[in-house]
Design brief:
313 residues, alpha/beta, 2 domains, 8 strands
Length: 313
């Protein structure tokens, strides 16, 4: 009996060593496994479709017989951060989250422009290609900018609109991020090293999650490979600000939920009254002690607020 026990103990030790080694030396594998599990748990499929110059990877779950929610990510992000929220809403809705052109696995095209208006046109072509023609639209940060602009161009397609810490308008009060950018020329949203990555996390979250340095280095190594692309995409967004969003806001006819973290250091909360003034049919929810990404930092509160909004439409 001793030999089988010894073999079992040896196997456990070897497995533990392999897991520890993977954690420390292959953070990408750990992230892939965790993402894969979250997708499996949420019955979320990864699909892809070619639309003109861009190959659109997207996540999808829920019944196509239900109303559709389309989730639009922010700058420097991708479809994956929406997985938890998609899992919550898939039981009653058909949910879609794409990688926007230039982000995630949706590769940038050399001869393409990446202004907000360009991204809105591409988003509409993508949704038409997958036969999503009437839907609820929710976007965070840059994704909110794209979503609000989309609502002014294609109002007939929206069942509702939700804007989470949205870019696009001029904040009466400058945020910490904007002040820092103007004073130092350092763009905290485009980090180049581990220290820069930690600075970025500190302005995205009110209470930043603890991320080990070897994971931070992994993320930075990925972003370094696309540093020129991220700067190009950021310039496209800045170029869009030359055409103010404020005059377009009254064109939004969809019922709109404005959600904001009161500790947002990227887009100041003073933007909220600007959106409220421009969008006639709106509701507003402010999350206390939450930063720029409420759906990540306060998922329960965010899901509850959005579910209540959708239920009461």
């Amino acid at each position: 009996m001793k030999k089988p026990i010894q073999i079992l103990i040896l196997a456990i030790v070897v497995l533990a060593g392999a897991l520890i080694g993977t954690y420390f030396y292959s953070p990408g594998t750990v992230i892939d496994v965790m993402t894969g599990y979250a997708k499996w748990k949420g019955n979320i499929d990864t699909k892809s479709i070619q639309v003109k110059k861009h190959d659109w990877p997207y996540l999808e779950s829920g019944s196509k017989n239900s109303e559709t929610i389309v989730f639009i990510h922010g700058f420097g992000s991708s479809k994956e951060p929406w997985i938890e929220m998609m899992d919550y809403f898939r039981k009653n809705y058909h949910v879609i989250a794409p990688d926007l052109p230039g982000f995630g696995e949706n590769k940038i095209a050399d001869d393409a422009e990446y202004t907000i208006a360009d991204q809105v046109d591409r988003l509409d072509r993508f949704l038409s290609a997958i036969n999503v023609n009437k839907f609820h639209l929710i976007g965070v940060s840059m994704g909110g900018y794209i979503s609000s602009y989309y609502a002014t161009v294609h109002p007939e397609k929206l069942l509702s609109l939700a804007l989470m810490d949205s870019a696009g308008v001029t904040s009466p009060e400058q945020s910490y991020y904007v002040k820092h950018l103007l004073e130092t020329k350092e763009n905290l949203l485009v980090p180049e090293d581990v220290e820069g990555f930690k600075k970025m996390m500190e302005i995205v979250y009110h209470v930043p999650p603890t991320i080990p340095d070897h994971f931070a280095r992994y993320f930075i190594d990925l972003r370094k490979k696309r540093l020129d692309e991220e700067n190009r995409l950021f310039q496209g967004m800045l170029k869009s600000l030359d055409t103010p969003l404020e005059p377009r806001l009254p064109l939004i006819t969809a019922k709109t939920l404005i959600m904001w973290g009161d500790k947002d250091r990227i887009i100041d909360i003073s933007s909220v009254p600007v959106f409220e003034k421009g969008i006639a049919n709106h509701q507003t929810v402010i999350f206390k002690n939450v930063g720029h990404a409420p759906f990540r930092e306060a998922p329960l509160e965010t899901n509850t607020a959005y579910e209540k909004f959708l239920t009461n439409l």
